[in-house]
Design brief:
This protein is of the alpha/beta class and about 260 residues long. It has two domains: about 40 residues; about 200 residues, Vaccinia Virus protein VP39 (Rossmann fold). Helices cover about 45% and strands about 15% of the residues. It has nine helices and eight strands. The protein has an eight-stranded mixed beta sheet with strand order 3-2-1-4-5-7-6-8, sandwiched between helices. Strand 2, helix 5 and strand 3 form a beta-alpha-beta unit. Helix 2 runs parallel beside helix 5. The longest helix is centred in the first third of the chain and has 34 residues. The protein is globular and about 60 Å long.
Amino acid sequence: MSLLKKLTPGFIRDRYLSVRARLQDLETSVRHLNTAVDAMLVSPRFAAGEEIGFNGQHQRKAIFKDLTAAVDFNAIIETGTWIGNTTGFMRQTSGKPVFSCEVNPRFHALAKMRLADMDKIHLELKDSRQFLKGLQKSQPAADTFFVYLDAHWYDDLPLAEEVDMIGTYWHNYVIMVDDFRVPDDSGYGFDNYGPGKTLDLSVLQGAIQKHKLAVFFPAARSSEESGGKCGCVVLASAGSLAQTLSKLPSLREWKSG
């Protein structure tokens, strides 16, 4: 009888969710291991290519090139180095110093190995919020930064905190968030980590309102994009930077409501 009592719908559901979570963790570990092995064997040094950086997305690269041509950034900040593909692309394309952090020791070590030949790239093994706090002690608040946020692979989702920290300290910045839902184009992929953890405007609404951020999405439709076809959002501090972005052909401003 006690065994039958255990086999309630709730018990079965909880066991199913536990097994599914373990399988997802195993799948993630295997994917990470495959990435590490491929990087070491196939691409132990960063090499530029059409499929390297920004998920191999040509339209996303066009946005970055438009931004760096229109705005004189002092430096680039990245959270989520991964194996350094986008890090190397941003450094090579912009000519600006790049500060990047990665929380996974394996990926951090791979990025250091692959980017060893490139100067003015500063890599840290650190949580993104600790990383941003450290930069706020060394990088002037009045400087202009491009910030690429891609540190959202795990259960902890630091995105809203990252944007709030950036808006609280720095005055002039453009933020790009990877894997973000484009509201009117379902062809773009985005990350969903469960209730309250979908990468869409609802997660950032508080920070957007608090810091009066202008919101932009890719002008290109997903059908025009290549590579991973991941969505993104671009946020700009109010004022001249937002006005500059509103004139770029690769972006379209989003007006809520």
